[in-house]
Amino acid sequence: MPADPALMELCELADAIARKRVSSREATLACLERIEAWQPHLNAFVAIEPEEALGLAAAADARLAKGEPSGPLDGVPFAHKDMFYARGKVSTCGSLIRRDWVASEDSTALARLTRAGALRLGTLHMAEFAYGPTGHNAHLGHARNPWNGAHVTGGSSSGSGAAVAARLTPAALGSDTGGSIRMPANFCGVTGLKTTVGRVSRFGAMPLSHSLDTIGPLARSAADCALVLQLIAGPDPADPTTAHIPVPDYRAACERPVRGMRLGVPERFYTEGLHAETERVFGQALDLFRAEGVEIVPLALPDQARLSAAGQILLAVEAAAFHRQWLKERPQDYGAQVRARLENGLAVPAVTYLEALRWRGLALAEHIRAVSGVDAFIAPVSATPSPTIAESDVGGAPGAEAVIQAVTRFMRPVNYLGLPALALPAGFTGAGLPVGVQIVGRPFEEDTILALGAGFQRASDHHKALPPLPGGTA
To answer: Among residues 24, 95, 157, 180, which one is catalytic?
Structure first.
């Protein structure tokens, strides 16, 4: 067991606190010390709350001393993307418009973790209104990749990816509407779970696109993601879009053997136009699965480019509808890129939007038929490793949307269909940048992709790699 509690994985840390091998105060102090050292280099946090966190840690230690833990995460310190509302707390949503906005209600996902005993370290950086895939933010400054500060973290859950990778928090909530969990997980070298639409309540979380938004964890391992999902999944009366479908035992799923499972490799789209190092890491991931007894088979999927285009229409229109009043009254308070993307959404004809919305059910049915012979399919998360902040800082220039599409093109089909997907660290480029893969399942089959992810991580150690603190220490 590492001497530093901040270096423990979530499951390990929760168990150590429950068994009183580590106190909540020790774990919280360890995270706060790493935050102090890393924050100037990463810009991962929006707000840090050390005094409150230590007070919560003291209360947790008192409960544990009496043998009265509040839940399986009692005393475990967390930080989350600054779009999950906590009553009485500022939630900036990464924006100037909400810089001082105080929430009057609690996010259901956040409240469920709090009831399980999790405590709050502060709030994490994000793209403005969660509408950006790189980690750039004109108001908060750009988040930076722990593996190389000149490169992007991925977005919009930029702080969540960076903070988990640098061991500032053992896990963090993020949102995924067009890749916003999987992209930071991929570029920062952590594990990220995009859930099925309807699996996790969205109540009290800032909306971006009501038909695409999903909430899920970023953590160091599939097992850690399973623990968080176990606690936040399930129906919520405050969110009528949540599904009344039984919640499986996700933690048990991570113990399943993967030998004999079938994993599809798309013949087109996801395997086209890959950077050489992305292609190498993807091939190595397939070899590892084969070595673990997973059957790798070619898979013919429906036209993914068409799905991507339809998903972009839904996102553009729904985001623009939410922001319409602010765009009219406070256009100057948006960053150039976000304002340009929102204004593009206002120009989409209603008929085009309705056609994209109406086609989704038929497209999902076609997809499910196509994947009927496999347990899940595997693909790269991005065609290229993390770009630099400078080369992807295109603001609201005419070519901005093309840059965004190039980074996110393997994301949007999954979002449009509402599927679950697990991003896993799978290797590194020669320059030391993480590269990941995503395992995509059928609706509400998070247990299957978590089983595959856990099997991959039992046979590899990419998820255990630790970025060095600038200056030479970890």
So the answer is: 180
Active-site position among 23, 24, 81, 89: 81
Residue 225 near residue 173 (C-beta atoms within 8 A): no
Amino acid at 151: H
- Note the pLDDT tens digit of each residue in 280-302: 999 999 999 999 999 999 999 99
Question: Are residues 183 and 203 in contact, defined by beta-carbon separation less than 8 angstroms?
Answer: no
Give the separation between CA 376 and CA 179, rounded to whole angstroms: 18
Q: Tell if the pTM clears 0.70, that is, is over it.
A: yes
Tokens 């639409």, residue located: 197
By DSSP bridging, strand 376-380 and strand 262-266 are parallel
- Does 94 fall in a domain? yes
Annotated active-site residue 180? The verdict is yes
**From the candidates 156, 158, 175, 386, which is the catalytic residue?**
156
What is the CATH number for 73?
A: 3.90.1300.10
The pLDDT tens digits of the residues spanning 189-202 come to: 999 999 999 999 99
> Where in the sequence is the domain holding 262, given as residue range(s)?
7-464
Residue 45 bridge partners (DSSP): 124
